[in-house]
Amino acid sequence: MNHTKGGLVIFTANSHPSSRELGKRIAERLGVELGKVQVYQEANRETRVQIQESVRGKDVFVIQTVSKDVNTTIMEMLIMVYACRTSCARSITGVLPYFPYSKQCKMRKRGSIVSKLIASMMCKAGLTHLITMDLHQKEIQGFFNIPVDNLRASPFLLQYIQEEIPDYRNAVIVAKSPSSAKRAQSFAERLRLGLAVIHGEAQDAESDQVDGRHSPPTVKTTGAIHPSMEIPLLIPKEKPPITVVGDVGGRIAIIVDDIIDDVDSFVAAAETLKERGAYKIFIMATHGILSSDAPRFIEESAIDEVVVTNTIPHELQKLQCPKIKTVDISMILSEAIRRIHNGESMSYLFRNIGVDD
User: Fold this and answer.
1) Neighbours of 176 (CB within 10 A)
2) What tens digit of pLDDT does each residue of 241-276 get?
3) End-to-end distance of the chain based on CA atoms, in angstroms?
4) SUPFAM superfamilies this protein is in (predicted)?
5) Quick check: do 8-151 and 155-201+240-327 share a fold?
6) What is the pLDDT of residues 36-76, one digit of tens each?
7) Is 193 exposed, middle or buried (0-12, 13-18, 19+ CB in 10 A)?
8) CATH 3.10.270.10, domain 155-201+240-327, yes or no
9) If one looks up domain 8-151 in CATH, what number appears?
């Protein structure tokens, strides 16, 4: 059954077959067929997009999931959006459940804010609206000059905890670092569970020794500063020993985060929790990138189960590691598309969501 008004076209921009699965699920929920389009790589690795039906005056939704080749993923999205724009589509909404380069959203030494660059490119290509999910930093929305709907996967993960973990009342929500404590607190308050925070684990250290910006001047100059004044130096950080703030003894530990990619920190956190008496370890994350040997490390670790959503295809990783489970979030994405196309309010999808969620 078609649940939308006419003039809706849904395309999947990804040329990888496994990445089209989410688009098929969304189209099926909306009762429409996926738009006809060809996306492929030329022999010289250039991306070519050929739209095979009219989009003039229609609302186009381009669904793009991030494959292993993230840069090709971005180019496919940009070229398809631009093709729809030059074909006179009325509106072009990008549906990127996982926003690529979202970790590079802050200035690091002489680096760059790549998330801002990607946002500018998408807007320039012709995007008029963006639907995404659990941005790594909510401030990324400010990089766009178009409306951005940052949906949440937490209701689906909370439902999984309540339905699939039989003794979840004996669980404690764990933040594997102080930076993820707000997310963990949100889960703990909604489930009426305790909270624990791991402090002192290895952080992404940035050495100031190789950065000239922090080097002392080679020649003393007193022209601009009074001779008696000296610029105070910031005391360097010293990593404290690993500690767990909160009681996890004899309980199920549920570690929550937004992205799980390099699993070293999760494996280390699981070992620490086991040493402190936790008898089961679960990991809940929205985006399961699971790069490189992550499935093997998970399989060999003290982690009992890793639960991620299907914002990123990970069927191959699931074959390598049975501990990886998937939660389907196509329902909320299809509802967001329906509401935007029909001109309905989006506030229903954000009910009971606070600033820190």
Assistant:
1) 24
2) 888 999 999 999 999 999 999 899 999 999 999 999
3) 34
4) PRTase-like
5) yes
6) 999 998 999 999 999 999 999 999 999 999 888 899 999 99
7) buried
8) no
9) 3.40.50.2020
